[in-house]
């Protein structure tokens, strides 16, 4: 099965349908030394806005990796897999502490994963401005 690139803002029905399914995903960020840091996360995807979102604790390694890159953020990727089906979204990750943006990320997470995470004072959202997408959904 060969992978194929898609437009992350207009990915087509098979790709978007796969992202509507409930799957655990991974987030890859870069540590300050350039090595990859990969962790399991929940991801929401908003193609019209060209955004993927990950809610996280503000003190987590993934958040620290993004913040260490500076205000312009860093390259990041999220991926989900189901057997031979997979899809990856890539772009520039930044961190927001804005309560409205965090609330929107939590709302989308609850919609996708069927549960609302417990309130957390230190919650932030990693927003990935999407530049590329690929997969074999």
How is this structure best described in words?
The protein is α+β, with helices and mostly antiparallel strands and about 140 residues long. It has one domain (about 5-135): Roll (Pnp Oxidase, Chain A). It has helices at about 15-20, 60-70, 100-115, and strands at about 5, 25-30, 35-40, 45, 50-55, 75-80, 85-95, 125-135. Strands 1, 2, 3, 4, 5, 6, 7 and 8 form an eight-stranded antiparallel beta sheet that branches. A hairpin with a 5-residue loop joins β2 and β3 (about 35-40). It is globular and about 35 Å long. The termini are close together. The mean pLDDT is about 95.
Helix content percent band = 10-25%
The CATH architecture assignment turns out to be Roll
The string of secondary-structure elements, in order, is: EHEEEEHEEHE
The outline comes out as globular
Q: In CATH terms, what is the fold-level topology? A: Pnp Oxidase, Chain A
Specify the biggest β-sheet: 8 strands, antiparallel
Number of helices: 3
CATH superfamily: Electron Transport, Fmn-binding Protein, Chain A
* Low-confidence sequence ranges: none
| Count of separate structural domains | 1
Structural class: alpha+beta
CATH class equals Mainly Beta
Strand content: 35-45%
The span between the termini is: 10 Å
Mean pLDDT rating: 95
Radius of gyration: 14 Å
Topology, number of strands: 8
